[in-house]
Design brief:
The complex is a heterodimer of chains A (about 110) and B (about 110). Chain A is mainly β and about 110 residues long. Helix content of chain A is about 0%, strand content about 45%. Chain A has a five-stranded mixed β-sheet, with no helix packed on it. The termini of chain A are far apart. Chain B is mainly beta and about 110 residues long. Chain B is about 0% helix and about 55% strand. In chain B, strands 2, 4, 5, 6, 9, 10 and 11 form a seven-stranded mixed β-sheet that branches. In chain B, strands 1-3-8-7 form a four-stranded antiparallel β-sheet, with no helix packed on it. The chains are: A mainly beta (about 110), B mainly beta (about 110). At the A-B interface, strand 3 and strand 4 of A face strand 4, strand 5, strand 9 and strand 10 of B.
């Protein structure tokens, strides 16, 4: 079962930073936070993941709070092509086979 | 990055017939593959976990006799929807797990049962 809660939708102006929050208040010490996104009628695309430290890659940054109960995905300069549903998933390090998707956040990037 | 393909990308079949969907990992060996289904405007729902050379593990509520999964090699898993009905119409997505534990997803297969 999904262990995360996310806002249903968010708007962002093109060129501005998009900050997508995720609440995972029941996360345990063995669980990673993963972010995927799904553009309409396509398979999910991996974005980034982390355990406790902040992470950055070419797509995004992941900020995890010190108590690990929430995180924020940051797209530094959103484009129209970033319009998608963004899923935050917690994944057990030891039962790492399964992903349970929550409802996700629909990000609408507007010109 | 790791690439997963699915075939066909869309299929229309008549009620009562069976349809097979293929999932291939193109540039990596996937010891584990996963099958999801997604109804319109809903999230992905995990159906089953498929390990190469062994029987698939189905999530609660998923009929194993209706959704037959075969993972015959490290690069191929198949999902067969048997005796399809209109309520089986959905978007079916597979994924493969790589050594770093990330899952890489296929583009999905749109099944419409008439």
């Amino acid at each position: 079962d999904a262990k995360t809660t996310q806002p249903t939708s968010m708007d962002c102006a093109e060129g501005r930073a998009a900050n997508l929050p995720c609440n995972h208040s029941t996360i345990s010490g063995n669980e990673y936070v993963y972010w995927y996104r799904q553009i309409h009628s396509q398979g999910p695309q991996y974005i980034i993941h982390g355990l406790k430290n902040n992470e950055t890659n070419e797509m995004a940054s992941l900020i995890i709070t010190e108590d690990r109960k929430s995180s924020t995905l940051i797209l530094p300069h959103a484009t129209l092509r970033d319009t998608a549903v963004y899923y935050c998933i917690v994944r057990d390090l030891y039962n790492f086979n399964k992903f349970y998707f929550g409802s996700g956040t629909k990000l609408n990037v507007k010109p | 990055g790791a690439v997963v393909s699915q075939h066909p990308s869309w299929v229309i079949c008549k009620s009562g017939t069976s349809v097979k969907i293929e999932c291939r990992s193109l540039d990596f060996q996937a010891t584990t593959m996963f099958w999801y289904r997604q109804f319109p405007k809903q999230s992905l729902m995990l159906m089953a976990t498929s390990n190469e050379g062994s029987k698939a593990t189905y999530e609660q509520g998923v009929e194993k006799d209706k959704f037959l999964i075969n993972h015959a090699s490290l690069t191929l898993s198949t999902l067969t929807v048997t005796s399809a009905h209109p309520e089986d119409s959905s978007f079916y997505i597979c994924s493969g797990r790589v050594a770093g534990d990330e899952q890489y997803f296929g583009p999905g297969t749109r099944l419409t049962v008439t």
